[in-house]
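re: ur question from yesterday

yeah so i grabbed the chain u mentioned. its 48 aa long if i counted rite. heres the sequnce exactly as i have it in my notes:
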Amino acid sequence: MTLHRVELETTSPQPWRNGGGTTHELLAWPPGAPAWLVRVSVARIAAA
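ran it thru and got these structure tokens back, copy pasting raw so excuse formatting
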């Protein structure tokens, strides 16, 4: 297994469907699949 470092600034923010924030996806597996089994992301909440 190879580890890869991902800088948050190198990912594009994805808006939430409800408009309450954004998420930066760091890992999704399997890659390119319509539905992921594993996901790691960082969220920024805009509205509580």
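noticed a couple things. The beta strands are 14-15, 21-29, 38-45. also The mean pLDDT is 91.
anyway ttyl
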